[in-house]
Amino acid sequence: MTVTTNPTTGLDRRPAVAAPLRAAVAGVVFRRAMASCAVRVRYPDGRTTGTTGPILDVRRPDALLARVGAAGLIGFGEAYQAGDWDSDDLVGLLTVLAGSMGTLVRPWLQWMRRFHGAREPRAERNTPDGSRRNIHRHYDLSNDLFALFLDESMSYSSALFDRPGDDFTAAQHRKIDRLLDGTGAGPGSRVLEIGTGWGELAIRAARRGARVVSVTLSAEQRELALRRAAAAGVGDRVEVRLCDYREIEPAPGGFDAIVSVEMVEAVGIDYWPTFAATLSQHSAPDGRIGLQMITMAHDRMLATRNTYTWIHKYVFPGGLIPSVPAMTDVLGRAGLTVLDRLDFGLDYAETLRRWRAAFTERERSGAVAALGFDATFARTWNFYLAYCEAGFAARYLDVCQLIVRRSG
């Protein structure tokens, strides 16, 4: 039989097959997990379990349990991609599950993870070559795809809202300006940005009169960032280099301000010390460093740091979300001190809600398919955005800004 694989997601769309014992155990785990939280499960014959909460519609029970039996939580996500289950309130459902993450699987059943837990592929380790491959898989999908759902600033990170109903782009600019203010970026400043995105932060820093060196591993992002900087009239003050953070050339005297927005999540725990040392090495003696990063509680980070997840396999290979204590410890070992911290995780839930609404609208209009992305990709992307929104809404995830300086 020919394997039918989605050319973008890599999902095998054939009916899943699992050993009968694994499928039976998966059935026990699934039913007990659903019964332990406020979720209703509806089966094809009309039978419904649970009395309250969002509904999980099981379309193909055998396929769902086969995928869960074969790959655990990764299989649960794959079952959604394949259409084995659905929900009219996907974010609500995933928010309930995220809020119960520590107790969904009974302790006496957790030992089974060692038998079906996937391992991180060696190719996804964040060596210089591995990082290039990992970044290419996500950020080089298509600039046009990201433009379908991002706001006009093309910011792919949490906005900072002042009040409900805030203009999206204004909230993104508020996030950027807080980092630039905190690091003192202004006229004559030498600014280093690690992780260019599509150039909005570099443009805003240059408009303040700073000279910016920005580094990225995404060729697609670099091309568009340079065009946007030129169109904004600051192309002469923005340099975008296609290089790894470990390859940044030193500037005489260091940089007055270093900023990095939601890039450390792609560094990997083995390379956190190298990243922190890079910040310290390139900072001027009286310089400031501004970091925005997604975080999770320290105990959850320790419990999951070696876990290979659905998000790794299909969205962000090689990633690991740090905790604030873990990151401040790593920064401290590199001679860096945290001066200021702001947590605003619920703003990320709102950011993701707006992205998902825009993506869903574009998908229904045919704009996603027009770019060559099929229905399986659309389900994958919808699950990814809902999965992340739920994580922030349940406070399983958070996001913070840190302002840092060299100690002493």
Distance between the termini: 66 Å
Hey, roughly how much beta strand do the residues contain? 15-25%
Work out the oligomeric state of the chains in this entry.
Answer: single chain
What series of H and E elements makes up the topology? HEEEHEHHHHHHEHEHEEHEHHHEHHHE
The number of domains: 2
How many whole angstroms does the radius of gyration measure? 22 Å
What does the overall shape look like? globular
Strand order of the largest sheet: 7-6-5-8-9-11-10
Q: Describe it for me?
A:
The chain is α/β, with parallel strands linked by helices. It folds into two domains: 20-117, Nonspecific Lipid-transfer Protein, Chain A, CATH 3.30.1050; 123-406, Rossmann fold. The protein has helices at residues 20-35, 61-82, 90-99, 107-110, 113-116, 128-139, 143-149, 168-183, 200-207, 219-231, 272-282, 298-304, 310-314, 324-333, 345-365, 367-370, 375-393, and strands at residues 40-42, 48-49, 55-58, 85-86, 190-194, 211-216, 238-242, 255-261, 283-296, 336-343, 397-406. It has a seven-stranded mixed beta sheet, with helices on both faces. Strands 2-1-3-4 form a four-stranded mixed beta sheet. The longest helix is centred in the N-terminal third of the chain and has 22 residues, at 61-82. The model is unreliable at 1-5 (pLDDT under 50).
Describe, in short, the structure shown.
The chain has 408 residues and is α/β, with parallel strands linked by helices.
Task: Compile the SSE list and pairings.
Blueprint: H1 20-35, E1 40-42, E2 48-49, E3 55-58, H2 61-82, E4 85-86, H3 90-99, H4 107-110, H5 113-116, H6 128-139, H7 143-149, H8 168-183, E5 190-194, H9 200-207, E6 211-216, H10 219-231, E7 238-242, E8 255-261, H11 272-282, E9 283-296, H12 298-304, H13 310-314, H14 324-333, E10 336-343, H15 345-365, H16 367-370, H17 375-393, E11 397-406
Parallel strand pairs: 1-3, 5-6, 5-8, 6-7, 8-9
Antiparallel strand pairs: 1-2, 3-4, 9-11, 10-11
